[in-house]
Write a structure and sequence with these properties.
The structure holds 2 protein chains of 2 kinds.
Chain A lengths: L2 H19 L3 H21 L3 H25 L15 H21 L15 H9 L3 H22 L2 H5 L1
Helix pairs in contact in A: 1-2, 2-3
Chain B lengths: L6 H22 L3 H25 L7 H31 L13
Helix pairs in contact in B: 1-2, 2-3
The chains are: A mainly alpha, B mainly alpha.
Chain lengths: 166, 107
């Protein structure tokens, strides 16, 4: 456990908390981008360079921008009248706290069973590419199909209604 | 070197906390976009678990956890695109993105 881990963990958790608590949607989108960046740095800290840079490219580069676009297209920048939290917020909070309590209990119970220190694995992008077109070629093809279907589906769903009715 | 017996425990606790924050956001917020952001946070917490177990697991050279995380990121990206497209379509139809005002399945 080095101090870098604590800084990155605080950044990630702080970003997530701020995203869920901030009233303005744009501020929340920026806060969640901080959380995504903290997660990418945690991946790098875990010697998973490829996953870390993929996280930066996909989440900060694409998903955050997509969220900002959706907020602007739905006039989400204005504050709603009835507050940002639903009426049953207490129930949701209790459920989330219960889930965290169970997960933390399970983790703390299994401290002894968890592996201790491990040598940093040496994995190059070359190895990942070989695995992707070797052992994992079927999931790769399925993801390719899924992404194509999702792109077409998103365009069709978000297309103007009158254009669909023609 | 204080606190946890294993660095893995720290990562797992961070992931659990992030998952709980995302779950609370998805359950508590009224705006559909914020619910989607909460779901994204939950997916990211799961990815952190995959990478942490891959790093401290017995066979990191098999790349299983890493591959799972990469495919999970791809599926999450597709989910975000379709989800936000649906939010935009619902906003066009009903004029709001607040979930407690969208209470009709038909028109």
């Amino acid at each position: 456990m080095n101090p870098v881990f604590y800084i990155l963990a605080a950044l990630t958790i702080g970003g997530g908390l701020a995203a869920m608590l901030l009233k303005h949607l744009i501020h929340a989108a920026l806060a969640v981008t901080v959380a995504f960046a903290g997660l990418a740095l945690l991946f790098l800290q875990l010697d998973a360079q490829f996953a870390g840079f993929a996280q930066i490219l996909i989440y900060i580069g694409a998903v955050a921008i997509l969220i900002v676009f959706a907020i602007l297209l739905t006039h989400g920048a204005e504050l709603p009248k009835g507050g940002v939290f639903s009426k049953s917020w207490l129930v949701g909070l209790v459920i989330a706290a219960g889930v965290f309590a169970v997960l933390a209990w399970a983790i703390l119970q299994s401290i002894r069973a968890l592996p201790q220190q491990a040598a940093a694995p040496v994995v190059t992008v070359h190895d990942i590419g070989n695995a992707l077109v070797g052992r994992y070629v079927l999931p790769l093809e399925i993801v390719a199909l899924l992404l194509t279907a999702a792109t077409i589906g998103a365009v069709i769903v978000a297309m103007h209604e009158k254009a669909v009715q023609k | 070197m204080t606190g946890f017996a294993s660095p893995l425990t720290g990562y797992l606790l961070v992931a659990a906390l992030l998952f709980a924050i995302g779950l609370a956001g998805a359950l508590v917020r009224r705006n559909a976009i914020m619910v989607l952001i909460g779901i994204e946070l939950m997916l990211n917490a799961a990815n952190l678990n995959f990478i942490a177990f891959w790093r401290y697991g017995p066979h990191p050279e098999a790349l299983t956890g890493m591959m799972f995380a990469i495919f999970s990121i791809a599926v999450a990206a597709a989910e975000a695109a379709v989800g936000l497209g649906l939010v935009i379509a619902i906003y066009r139809h009903t004029g709001t993105t607040e979930l407690d005002k969208i209470n009709r399945m038909k028109g």
